[in-house]
Amino acid sequence: MPATLGSPLPTIGVLLCAWLLIALLSALWPSPDGGTRLLFPLGALIGCGLAVTAIHALTVLPQGALEWRLALPLGLPNRPTHLALDALSAVYLAVLGCVSAGVSLYGAGYFRAPQALPQGSPPGLLCCQYHLFLASMGFVLLAADAYAFLVSWEVMALSSYFLVVTDHRVEAILEAGYLYLLMAHVGALALLLAFGVLGAAAGGYTFEALRGAHFSPAVAGAAFALGLIGFGGKAGLVPLHVWLPEAHPAAPSPVSALMSGVMLKMAVYGMLRLCFDLMTDLAWWWGLIAVALGLFSALYGIVFAAAQTDMKRLLAYSSIENLGILFAALGLALVFHGAGMPLAAALALLAVLYHSVNHAFMKSLLFLGTGSVLHATGQRNLGRLGGLIHRMPWVAWLTLVGALAIAGLPPLNGFVSEWLLLQAFLYSHEVPQPFVNMALPLGAGLVALVAALSGYVMVKFFGVVFLGRSREAGHLPVRDVDPEERIGLAWLATACVCLGLLPAQVVGLLQRVAVQLRVGVLPDNSAPWWMLAPVSGRQASYAPLVFLAAFVVFVLLTIGVVRLIHRSRASRVEPWDGGFGSLDKRTQDTAEGFGQPIRQLFEPFFAMRRQLPSPFDAAPQYRVTIGDRFWELLYLPLAALMQRASGVIVGLQGTRLSGHLLYGFMTLILLLGLVL
Amino acid sequence: MNPLEWFTQILAVIAALAAAPLFLGWVNQCRAWLQNRSAPSVLQIYRGLRKLFNKDLVVAQGASPLFGAAPYVVFGTMAVAAAIIPSMSTRLPFAATADAIALVGLFATSRVFLSLAAMDIGTPFGTMGARRDMMVGFLAEPALLMVIFVASLLSATTALPQISERLMTQSLTLSPSLAFTAVAFTMVLLAENARLPIDNPASHLELTMIHEAMLLEYSGRHLALMEWASALKLFNYACVGFSLFLPWGTATGEAGPLALLTAIPVLAVKLLFAGIALAAIETVSAKLRVFRAPEFLATAFLFAVLGLLVHILLGG
Fold it and tell me: ipTM score here?
């Protein structure tokens, strides 16, 4: 469908340009605060508009016509920039708009606080980079040719790099930023090659041309592998994950929220676009690689999350886990799609989309919660926090929603996507391949293990930060948050609850993506509006709204009856000390202690260094440091190899004039030999 | 809307609430007999609950509202779970709101709230209990899910009533895959309900307790609700086991009200024997060290996987 003035595509384009305009305005703002007080809420408003437009586009999208297209005479000479909007990009645009609205509103309060930027970039510059980052993600989703896609992708990577190094006077943050930049460019290079391979085979660089072409298995496989490196690197798939736990904690919290919540989803979007839209004839077994990598990343991420003592690193590792689950679900969809099982493929694809949406909201919420804690206490170390539920009740209760959601507990949203994924896994024994049909169902066990472990991690996170007693006396006077921050947090928490309680409506919207990608269609069953029954009511159904209502009624009844029977008085006493009489904040369990069972169970995962005291130490110290094995196994050898190679090259370059003449002569001989 | 079905639904919840302490009392009595101790009355649990409900509430300083809310949340989730499990009849109108996977989620919710409440005061025992309980929980959950997976593959549904109905149409034999998963399920039941060999329900020795450590700060009606909820959890697990492995005798829709009248005694007999079996298992096993628990639950998981492979290879 060509884009007319009233259609959603130009509206979305204008909204993204409005973000760019805000970026420009904040860079030129006269006063030193960079207009953050005004511009951030304005950006949030634009985000809302974007979300509404995208959801509207999703609902009015006709089943037959797939998208709106637009060719702008921008970019390379004689090569217009193509933009398009279809169901897939509309879903992710809605996520971008909705999440960024909450985060921007929160940012308005956060970046105004005096302790936000002790020595970093000026607020105006930050606001500029922030909105540039948002707009670039929007254009990644709208791009309909490889050139526009890669340019937006690169702008996204660069703007987020500058946001990560906001506190650029801290050495560790600069190092984290450098690592991020390096990994982002290795990934971008892989993507460039992937699109290059496809474009050369198809004879065009627009998505339209790629869609129409047929690729040989070798070409499709190469593009898939390169895409997995490029997008998987962005998503933090193991072993390309090392940048993630460094870069996400380094950034200011609203930026971490956007990076973890939204930017990582761009990788999922890209992978979906590549595998289901651009390449139609991909061998099914490539999906198995994605499943295996995804499940391994999920387990690896969550095990490391359990062992962390820095709350933002913990959340970053949990993002690795969630993206692993997403890639596993994506791979599962590919396997089912290739094996000709449309219903199962549609279920798995819905799980990918639903979990993308969910994770965007819950992880942003948690990162914003840590931002408030960080502002209030100046501490990121779990070992120095505790008891904050008394002093920051708003943040605590809203963060609890996010923590329960990400732990996959009903009736919140994280459970729905987990449920859909497990429903999809139930079909995995029907894959017509021996061994695969036995191995794949075990993946469901792994998904369950990861989900249960994420419950463990979230109990640790919430329990250590907000419950118990304060572990450090020297906190700044803790305040609860500004109204803007409160609204931002509440916005995201409400979204988590709504996505959890109305799964049938959300699935109804997301299903349009499965239809558009020709993956499969869920049967039309006559389930009532409050019940999610993707296949049929007899096979599986889930109605969170009803059982929440029943739960609430029952709990109210219980409270009523208990109070009626006996009006017992409540008195407050000291907690029971087991007869020793010296309970204080130091006798509580620590974050290290809470992670200890996991450290012991999954010991082979960790590169652990224990520093044990000797009996003669005057001041005995016990210290455990946990490292990532992939540094020693992969990255440090690689870096050493690079060093040695560059050493050799430096040696070659450093000769006298006669040596250079010799190189020239030899090159000439070599070329002559080739030509003749 | 069928009035009989709704009546059955409400009856199922009330029966579970009422009979759960009795079942626990029966298990305790059997245990005492098998261990040559003089047995407490089967009604002992009720007496304990009555005593606790009548006591004043003592709350630790520094407890947040979460601490007071947790008993209600835990009790409520267990009651909602009881409404889903087809213990007497498979025609439960409420069962369509949550399938077996959601049931696992409900159990996880109650566990998370219990653990959070245990961490709320900031005493070392509470946090230690929370971490150990979460460890047992995260190891048991995959095993439980694999058990449900096998049953779902056999009956092509994840809804518990449909699984039961499907199995009831078969003859009175246990298919080999279900036999393996039944072993796995029993092990999960022991671990999840803080029974031997994972946790000793009768022990208050600080270094070994798991479940009791989390309840140390509770008193009065809060403690009563928590104890009742854990009795209900054991009852629920037993009923899930019956619906997956011994569904025979449960009333189905076609039979009408008369079937319900026979289903109640059948359930009572099943619980009677389950209690004896549970007591026997607990009597012959010794408590494992905390760090042997993963091996125990990994074995449970492997049994469930064996069941799965047997199903896929033999189709049985």
Answer: 0.94
